[in-house]
Task: inverse folding
């Protein structure tokens, strides 16, 4: 059931969020904050991509014996309503996040921009699509009423600047911001938002604050933003997954160092070659899209040229076919999340040198 929500417009609140992504390049003037005793927060919201770093944040909270009913997992579905338009994301990501939340006994909710990546990519002389989120078995719609009518029809730029790398701004950050600003359960109180960036991932992330005032704070709602694993090494991340015997997102088994979108704009030539290898129809859809838009994801090369320069990173082994099937069909259940014998996946410690490293 889809409901329109009365408090839909951010401007209805006394202190609207400071971010307007049409205008903002990066987090503006982040304000340092102090972390309180974790048990003093009414709710701890973990923004989870399903990747190893946000998973580590959740496991760390459990190690600290934070009651599970104080924690909620929020996942921003890149392609819009879960499972509706398979375009940018790994098909297994949403089922994985849902299965993980169930296995952990932690409430898990999805939120998205209507029609997701494809809807924003093809935007023509209109405002960006509405934001929607799950609430109590319903889907709540936050209509987009502000902003100019404009045309996108360009892939996100491979840049730090969120005005041109619009995917992160429009499909992740702005979605979460609008949900937090308008969600009926989070209007009054003290909340902690956790994200999983790490300093060693990039020069940009190395500069992030550990704890800052979240831009969705207002007088009645204190929101603190904690990058829980910002100082952690990749080894420490894998260690905590091993300690809890967690089956990592299938992309890692296919040799990917990060669980980003399947066909992230920052994918390396090898990763494009891998996509062409395991999901040629997906790859070809992107190639067609480049032709239709007369715009390439890379500044210099077409996707085909990029993939031609790379080599599939798919590990060779008897289990690879099963990882591919799982990643593309997404039939993962809570019972699959804990494994008896934990093994480091092929994508671990392979992140060096990817072009995305300078961008996030
Ligand atoms: S993972 Fe890549 S393509 Fe997906 S939102 Fe982030 S930068 Fe954009």
Result:
């Amino acid at each position: 059931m889809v409901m329109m929500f009365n408090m839909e417009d951010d401007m209805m609140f006394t202190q609207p969020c400071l971010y307007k992504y049409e205008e903002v390049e990066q987090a503006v003037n982040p304000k340092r904050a102090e972390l309180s005793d974790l048990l003093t927060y009414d709710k701890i919201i973990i923004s989870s991509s399903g990747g190893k770093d946000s998973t580590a944040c959740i496991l760390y909270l459990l190690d600290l014996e934070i009651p599970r009913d104080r924690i909620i997992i929020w996942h921003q579905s890149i392609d819009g309503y879960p499972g509706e338009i398979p375009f940018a994301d790994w098909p297994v990501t949403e089922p994985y996040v849902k299965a993980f939340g169930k296995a952990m006994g932690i409430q898990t909710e999805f939120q998205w921009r209507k029609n997701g990546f494809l809807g924003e990519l093809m935007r023509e002389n209109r405002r960006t699509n509405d934001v929607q989120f799950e609430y109590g078995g319903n889907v709540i719609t936050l209509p987009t009423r502000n902003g100019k009518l404009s045309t996108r029809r360009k892939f996100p730029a491979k840049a730090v600047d969120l005005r041109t790398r619009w995917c992160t701004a429009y499909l992740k950050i702005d979605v979460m911001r609008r949900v937090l600003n308008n969600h009926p359960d989070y209007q009054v109180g003290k909340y902690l938002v956790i994200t999983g960036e790490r300093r060693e991932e990039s020069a940009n992330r190395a500069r992030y604050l550990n704890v800052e005032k979240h831009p969705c704070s207002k007088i009645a709602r204190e929101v603190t933003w904690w990058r829980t694993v910002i100082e952690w090494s990749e080894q420490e991340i894998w260690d905590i997954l091993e300690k809890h015997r967690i089956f990592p997102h299938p992309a890692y088994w296919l040799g990917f160092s990060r669980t980003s979108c399947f066909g992230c704009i920052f994918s390396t030539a090898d990763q494009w070659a891998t996509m062409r290898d395991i999901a040629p129809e997906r790859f070809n859809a992107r190639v067609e899209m480049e032709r239709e838009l007369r715009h390439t994801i890379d500044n210099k090369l077409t996707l085909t040229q990029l993939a031609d320069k790379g080599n599939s990173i798919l590990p060779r082994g008897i289990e690879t076919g099963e990882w591919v099937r799982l990643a593309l069909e997404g039939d993962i259940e809570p019972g699959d999340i804990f494994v008896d014998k934990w093994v480091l996946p092929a994508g671990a410690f392979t992140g060096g040198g990817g072009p995305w490293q300078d961008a996030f």
Remarks:
- The two ends are 36 Å apart (CA to CA).
